[in-house]
Amino acid sequence: MIGIITNSGVSSEGNNIYYVYQSFFRLDYDYLIIPLTNIDDIKSKIDKCSGIIMQGGDDYLDIHPEIIKYIHDIDKPLLAICMSMQAMGVLFNGKLKYITNHKDKKKYSHYVTIKENTLLYKILGCSKLLVNSSHKECLEYTDLTVSAYSNCIEAIEDSSKRFFLGLQWHPEKMIEYDKLERKIFDYFYQVTNK
pTM, whole model, 2 decimals? Predict the structure, then answer.
């Protein structure tokens, strides 16, 4: 079972809500939806899962690095996307900076360069990848391995773990029209079922 960490927000009626982006439900996984309640409850739900997906969003909360640290410590496979990738990088001595030219709604926005001898290269088998782009901040640096970049850090990972990968772009929005993006989720799913 794949755990997916919700985001928290406010509905149009002013009610507090937890939510998951619909794009993730295009994947045929058994999910455990994990609301952003308290860290002990979140940890107990993470323990029931074979892998965790952390979504993108506007700004990460103090609890996000706590969640990531726990997942890292117990070596649970983690795929962190956009804002969650940024939280991952900051947790490992990283720093964010604002960026102005990386937010649009195009299917493809720009290329990223993928470094050889990384997990991401192993999954995709290529050194260039067209991605979408929807973020206002990016990592300036981190102690994690930078596995892809454009004019900013686009992917980070920890090769000492089974699967600990963060992506700046949104592969979940691309899986219906891009086979390479689907490969990321397929590989993640294979690792979680070993």
Answer: 0.94
